[in-house]
Design brief:
Length: about 170
Amino acid sequence: PESSHTDDEALELSRAIAHMERLLRAVAGPRLRVRYALPDFEARAHITRSALEQMLLNLVANARDAGADEVKISVGYEPCLSCDVEHDCQNGFITLEVSDNGSGMANELLSHVTGRFSHFANRSDFGSGLVTVNNLARAVGGHTELWNLESAGLCVRISLPNAGVLWQLAA
């Protein structure tokens, strides 16, 4: 679908994440180290500052609760290789990856956790954080992927519609 966003509604992710650093450190607590890998290009995406904050707070809290001692937040660019009705990706995606070295997630939960209306009523060890992250991404025309890392931990990639021009990366 055609985007209804304007450039005025686009958020520059590196700058927004930098402004959240103190808050993210407070949520992480004294044991969890937060590292950043932010790009040298202006990564603009159609998302509100409060939605981005809610996503990152959920993911950092999940890493902390999974026993991680390190979480990495990185921003990148991903061209759209196959557009469909759910994704507004005429200009590719800005990706936000949050990975940790915690306990990861049971494989049987991985495919279910980002479902549009996931519900795990009898699971005390699973909150609604990842579902919230997925719903916030979908609300702006993006999507999420998650997987366990081979070394231990979980990686969540949030792909948000790119609101900037990345002509220098297209070469």
